[in-house]
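Collaboration report, partner site 2.

Our partner group contributed sequences for two proteins of shared interest, and the home lab folded both. The records are reproduced in the order in which they were received, starting with the first partner submission.
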Amino acid sequence: MQKCIIHHTGVDNTAHGVLKDQKVYLLGKDNNLYFPEEMFMAREECEGGLIQFEIEGKWGFADIFTGKIAIEPTWDYAGPFYRGYAHVVLGVQLASEGYSDEKQGGQHGYIDSDGKIIIPLEYDDAEEIPYRKYFMVAKNKRWGLIDIENESIIPFLWDYLQTNYKHNLIFCGIKEKSELHVGDVDKLCSAIIQTQLEPTCEYILKWGVYDENFNLIVHPELDTEPIRPQIKSSPRSKSFSYYDEHYILKREEGYGVLCNDGRLIANIELSKKQATLMINSICQWSFQGNLYI
């Protein structure tokens, strides 16, 4: 009987376990053994009934109902299964016990629920959750999107790549050198920088948008990633929810409105007030309250 750690990174949870007769068990506080299905949210959140476990620094997967090892522990890290695939890594240095965003190095790829390598371990980093049946991966410190055949769909140009809430738009960010200089006006903060101070940043991010067909519909010229408006009863209300049907785009002093399906409703030439009023007028029937950004 060997000690192991059972990881449920889908809900950021770990537990002590043991490996006995090629089965993984939870070790209860009463020192009794239980199947992993007893772990918090395991039945609800472990796709395909597969849960991560770690033994002697290697990660694999076990069946939550029987404890049987489904995928042998061969990885230095393995993420949870999402949409049939799991992110796996070899040669990674984890910053703490379990998965951490501060992982260093390694070769990243994906496996299916049979343990077969679907995307080869040739990338510098990878997102946990596939985008439909596409994968966001990084190579040479640039992010792109590949398909299940490992073919490039979005080129490796971006410092940041992320999906919107409904997973039908992709926001791309690229670093540009900052215009902040010692003694000049900081154009981001409209403040005078003391001549004896050093610059506080080296770059700024510019954002663009891909639609669900991977067309670059907004070039990387936005000052922020597209903004989800907040629904509030009043501007000072602390209670709010997000509205996901439209996004506010900001470029310098101009604002635009982007529909969730990728249509640009208004060019990025409106004032902030005009953009907010436009969304309120379009969507007033669908919620109570007003939109604020």
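Second partner submission, folded after the first:
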Amino acid sequence: PGQQYEDPYGDWARLSEVSDSGALLVRPDGYVAFRYATTAGDAEELLGDAVRRILGHG
């Protein structure tokens, strides 16, 4: 957590189906709660919207 991650062979992008410009939210139990393969806009805003929906606030 909080550290840079390098993926020189592209394994993470291929397995997660999320590009460098995408966004992914994974719960502590490993369940993928939110995924955007690529984001046309602000990833922070998209994640915020996803968290609000997951928590029933949006």
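Feedback sent to the partner group on the second submission included the following. The mean pLDDT is 83. Strands lie at 23-26, 32-36.
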